[in-house]
Amino acid sequence: MEYVKSAIACLPESLVNTARRFFDGQDPAHDWEHNLRVIALCERIGREESADMDILRPAALLHDIGRAEERKTGECHAEISARLVPELLVPYGYSDGSITCIQQVILAHRFRKERPPTTVEEQILFDADKLDSIGAIGIARVFTYSGVIAQPLSSDDPHQHTPLAEFEWKLSRIKERLFTKTAREIAEERDTFMVLFFERWKKEIEGEV
């Protein structure tokens, strides 16, 4: 809790409260608690990687505020979140230059070939968001979200998406996509735990143990 408390303490309280309201009704895999975990990881990694925390903290706070709108319209939530940034930050005296930087950090957390993370702040938010998808938290999130969208826990149908399929096609590759040294170090233990879990999971599904 130290990292998230430190980060939140550096942000305007009313801004934090406003951001939190965007997560009302969000599914448990993408809720306010996910946001807080990403903020904490940004704080931890940002200190180690000498990031501009005045840019990174508000970017972490606001990076997912567009998710509710994404559910309604299908537009990328990073695009929506970035678009909302000026109206939220101008009242707190953020400069145009800072707002532009914060928007770019938010946009880059959804990696696209035309917009890869380049600055250290962009890379840290990207890494923090992905780290929350692996390890024990990642396992909990993938099973939670499978329940939200009514996917089966397991299936013999190779075309049916399941938590195991998500691990094999996405989660197992995340540690190789991280940018910062600190994030890669954090990912090692998380990835090891996750691999062991799914190895056991496959054995139990097959009735081997």
TrEMBL record:
Checking InterPro entries in the record gives: HD/PDEase_dom, HD_domain, HDIG_dom
> What CDD domains does the record point to?
HDc (cd00077)
Q: Which residues form the HD domain?
A: 31-134
Q: Which domain of life is it from?
A: Bacteria
PROSITE patterns listed in its UniProt record: HD (PS51831)
Gene3D superfamilies in the cross-refs: 1.10.3210.50
Q: Under which name does UniProt file this protein?
A: HD domain-containing protein
Q: What's the source species for this entry?
A: Brevibacillus ruminantium
Upper lineage is: Bacteria, Bacillati, Bacillota, Bacilli, Bacillales
